[in-house]
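Example A, followed by Example B.
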Amino acid sequence: MDFEFLSPVEDKLLAHNIMLPEQVLGRNLRIHTKQDGFPDIKDVKIAIVTLEPRLIKGESIHFRFRKHFYQLFSGNWDFVCADLGVLKAGESPEDTLFALQTLVQEMYQRNILTIVIGGEQENTLGLFRGLSKMNTFVNLTSIDPRLDFGAPGVLVSDDSYMSKIITEKPNNLKQFTNLGFQSYYVSQEELDLMQKLFFDAYRLGEITADIHESEPILRDTDILSVDFNAIKANELDFSYGNPNGFSGTEICSLMRYAGLSDRLNVLGLFDMPSTARADQLLAQMVWYVLEGFCYRVNEFPFSIHEPCTKFVVPQEKETFIFFRSEKSQRWWVEVPKGAIHNNKEETTLLPCAEKDYRMAQKGEIPSRWWKSVHRSMH
């Protein structure tokens, strides 16, 4: 395929690379350069692309990010990562969305995890369209202080990327989950819409109280979209940002869980401010994605034929069947699909946490199980 919409990395970044130790990322990536052209991606597992915002203020994101990212030391990783360069903003937003869609489709066909960095979160629509064209259904997760369905006072807006995603035809969005919304930025109508659609939303305090609770959600995610407004402003040295949000440590933990997810195909990192500290944190967040990827255990799709322990929890109206992997110690729960095959109800396996198993033992119904069942019936 001709990747003519991708520009090479700047020469001055490559010149700086030569002065770095051999163990750093900048010396071990396959990089799209003006001299050598587009890199060979036959055995590449992760591809990084930076996206220029339509209005560039100061030094561009692709230079700032790489300056910090290239000098980070790589771990004991056994996979190939490529820097495919810069995707310039198109003449119109639709041009940019189409380029992103094309990129995601091509990388998906090659089984490459795509990381898109920069620009506005509205570009999530291009990532979704790319994967939606390849998959029957898509699970989308957003780390965002808002739900992004519409403008203030408007429940569903034509200008909202999330509104476009939920109204596109055919609609291939299977599940949408928000991690870290802040209640004062979200109307009750938006929360009611989430409940009506059987989508999931977790308040910031719910996630930060136990960051590990996000792991099953990210394990079940095809696309992850991150708005930097979800991070505390003082973590970014950004005077106009949110006073509340995830810490640097917490957002990096979420990125590691994302990298660990066998299912994740696309990651978008958007709306970052132009500060040196934000650039450093961005580079470290991507580093943690790579670190998590290194420890993937290839359990998607999870099968009960794999080594696992089965736990049956009978309740008055339901019998829950949980499985714990012997390989990773992660948990899944059976969810009825609402279909009957050979006189037996079909089931699927939903990633969950040990906490869900403990809840079922106490007679409670895990909320993610309940919503998954109702989604399958609609």
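Example B, a separate protein, is given below in the same form.
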Amino acid sequence: MLRVEFLKYMAALAAMWKISPVVARQIVEAEISRQDFGKDFSWGVATSAYQVEGAWNLDGKGESIWDRYTQKQGNIKDSSDGKVASDFYHRYKSDLGLLKSLNLKNFRFSFSWPRLLPDGTGKVNGQGIGFYDRMIDTCLNLGIEPWAMLYHWDLPQKLEDKDGWTNRDIVGWFSEYADLCSRKFGDRIKHWMVLNEPGSYTTLGYLSGIHAPSRIGIGNYLSSVHHTCLCQAEGGRILRENVPNGHIGTTFSCSYIEPEKETSLYQSAAKRLDVVFNRLFIEPSLGMGYPFEDLPFLEKMAPYIQNGDMEKLKYEFDFIGIQNYFRVIAKPFPIPYLWASRVKPETDAEMTEMGWEVHPDGMYKIIKQFAKYPIKEIIVTENGAAFPDQIVNGRIHDLQRINFYKRYLQNTLRAKREGVNITGYFAWTFIDNFEWVEGFHPRFGLVHNDFKTQERIVKDSGYWFRDFLK
């Protein structure tokens, strides 16, 4: 009788996850433990300033491109914005106490560039410095290790008014900002990251125009890519100079790319997508240059490349952050320049609320792909999923999210056991936040947030991490 009930349970899980009962059973039975990853493995959560802080115009903060972008009707699906977001600016003490209670000892956050330099350069906002001083000290007093991200998409609007990432002057602007952050906070922060997902903000913000600052065009895109790569390396050098014993990295959004069919046309399409999704920003930092041969339209970048630039692109990071959410199936498609497109997942595939296919094996494969580069260390600096959450008797039983994490962690461990130097894992995200153009609807958090009352409720996934890390 017990076996019959177990099989029914497996069938129910399989139906919910849209996978076979055999795979469902493998998930349930293939338990993992914290000890499997080693005693020095770093476990944490990731957040970003614009998505959680709020206080958008308080205490001397300047306007960001997202403050401006969210005010235009139709840009955000639910017409929300980050003016208050999760109100972390006012609630950081209680939020960090909650984080500590979940046994998550590493907190990745980003500095808000316009909170520190309201005009992007020049006059420093002392109240902004004071906020981060207090927040960092609170982390340390609680035994939480702060991990700082310099740039997570909230460019000061005053700099965008001067053409933002398409203006080569941004190398100087960003250098001034990186120098300020590392001098002011480098005495207490060991772990630093330069850029969050440069492939995302250049493509979405300067090519397709569906993210802030809503610029469109191949020239905008290619100039922003090159200037971003210059800032990526220069930011690393500044951090190294000001925090000589720092642990310095940068992060990339990445997806394992597979051709829909094993023909040369489909394989070529997959190679072109691989350049855009995975190779475009890491290879210049490794001294490999831009992959012109595999994506010929990149040669149009030539007008933006000055003498000596290819040497300036190089910087040896201590670690590379991998941020993986889905795989990509490629096919040839008549899109100018790229001549390739993604294939929609199968109709019976398990999907997140973002419309992303759940495919844990892709995590293993993309880690193995990046491990082929001559890099010292890999950290999973983002991984997570948005699923529908329902409050029942004051609890949120988000089993689907728990099993998402289990499966992706199993594949992370699989790569680690095969010799890849993976040293940490950060869940995206700590608390439900403002999810860019999607607004408040997609909920990625381990902690539920009521955006009207700012009441926090730990989800079962948060409790799962608490017990896993006990």
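On Example B: The chain has two domains: 1-30, 32-468.
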